[in-house]
Amino acid sequence: MTARAATTRDESLPSAYSEALEARSIGPLWTALHVLLPQERVTRALPHRWRWAEVRPLLAEAARLVDIEHAERRVLVLCNPGLEGAYAITSTLYAGLQILMPGESAPSHHHTPAALRLVVEGRGAYTTVDGVKCVMEPGDLIITPPMRWHDHGHEGTEPVVWLDGLDIPLVRGFDASWASPMRPACLPETDTDSSEDEFTGAGLVPRRPRYAATGYPQVRWPWRTVRRALASLAAGAPAHEPVVLRHVDPTTGGFPLATMGSEAQWLRPGEATRAERRTAGRVYQVVEGRGESRVGDATLAWEEGDTFVAPPWHWVHHRNLSATVPACLFQFNDEPALRALGLWHEEIESSST
Ligand code: 1HN
Fold first, then answer.
1. What is the CATH number of the domain that holds 149?
2. Which of 142, 149, 164 has most ligand 1 atoms within 8 Å of its beta carbon, as the pocket-test mutant?
3. Is residue 168 within 6 Å of ligand 1 at its C-beta?
């Protein structure tokens, strides 16, 4: 079932009465109640997959056709086919793929929406978050929290592409989306970020941090670290237990951002996960391997570099199609926002499918 616009006129009433209501900006509730409060959860967003093999050449062409000075951010937006015109991948989340070429830089700005980035391909680029230099290597996660200055630079020799995830549709729902004017990118104030020196071991935090106290002690999670942790978790986990790590603020154990959460999942060779559904929408990026995911009634086959979306309250399960190598999925979602609003629910299928 898909969400519909409310139609408020009750055709059984005298038209003069309906006109009198409309002229005063009043609507009857009884014609709209089932749309405002349907008896099951609905979304117009559809399960969908974007193939890296198809998007990659389009990004390369964008790099030829569009000046970074003109574009400021050279991004192809992943538009959910059920949400036409919304520039949204779910009703609350935005996703796009950004390409930066060697020697280019994308100017600095800040804005009310929160952003996160997952590097898809290439080395040598970096994002500066409030002066902190965050190197971008494939699989790395970098967050740019609300109102933190950020820009992108590139010191390498190959194109770098990353997935941008933002809570723009959610923030726009509050009429709270706003960005500063751009200013030129300036040199980072640090050579490295806290994931490289302060947060290198789980359960250990520095007594005295040397990075500025911005409220966001960790803004980068290197894939190197995450992959090693996933491999360790997988080695000891019972076969039927999913191998998933959440990204957290190491000083609190809570979500690093107030609206968007993220996780990395390791699928063992041949593994098929149990179906579960959540009120959160989920955007997946395939970091390694190939497999397929069942999302509601859709079967989405995927391989490295692909992006796919699971709208809220769709049953989701994954299968690693390789019998010999693991597959790794990164996922971001709107779970923290839903939890904060008392809207979080999840269900896990009791038998494996
Ligand atoms: C943004 O600031 C970036 O900083 C990328 O790279 C995509 C999409 C909408 C609004 C702001 C970036 C964005 C964005």
1. 2.60.120.10
2. 164
3. yes
**pLDDT-above-90 percentage for the chain:** 96
pLDDT per residue as tens digits for the range 172-185: 999 999 999 999 99
- Does any ligand 1 atom lie closer than 6 A to the CB of residue 78? no
Confidence check: pLDDT of 2 > 80: no
Residue 6 in contact with residue 35, Cβ under 8 Å?
yes
Per DSSP bridges, beta strands 327-333 and 94-100 are unpaired
What is the spatial distance between Cα 288 and Cα 49, in angstroms, rounded to a whole number?
16
Residues 43-82 have pLDDT tens digits of 999 999 999 999 999 999 999 999 999 999 999 999 999 9
CA of 151 to the centre of ligand 1 (A): 10
Total domains in the chain come to 1
Distance (Å, rounded) from C-alpha 50 to C-alpha 160?
18
**Does 7 fall in a domain?**
no
- 310 lies in a domain? yes
d(CA 306, CA 347): 26
How high is the pLDDT of residue 7?
64
